[in-house]
Amino acid sequence: MPIRPENLARYPRDWKTVIVPRVRERSGNRCECTGHCGLDHDGRCAAVNGEPHPTTGSKVVLTVMHLDHMPENNGDDNLLHGCQQCHNRYDMPMRRAGMKARAREACACGDLFLPGDG
Q1: What ranges do the domains of the chain cover?
Q2: What is residue 58's DSSP assignment?
């Protein structure tokens, strides 16, 4: 997934040179999702980097997923090499929330009453 410009500073300087290669080596260049995305892969997702996706047929491009959605947390237990399908499905709730927040920010009026205000 491309890194949003406003989030670049949240990634460590060695993201591309150390962290991503470390995850790639661990994964064997194969999607590591075992159902994190909500799909039953009958074990581990069979998508292999550069090959046609077993479900969609599109060329697989593996990217590194942050399971807690926090780019600052780069521990091995928080990073997963994921295919487009798994990564997009996993991130979908966070993306929808972000799109909603950005749309709200673009609106000049704002909210008169916020949730929780009595």
Answers
A1: 5-93
A2: S
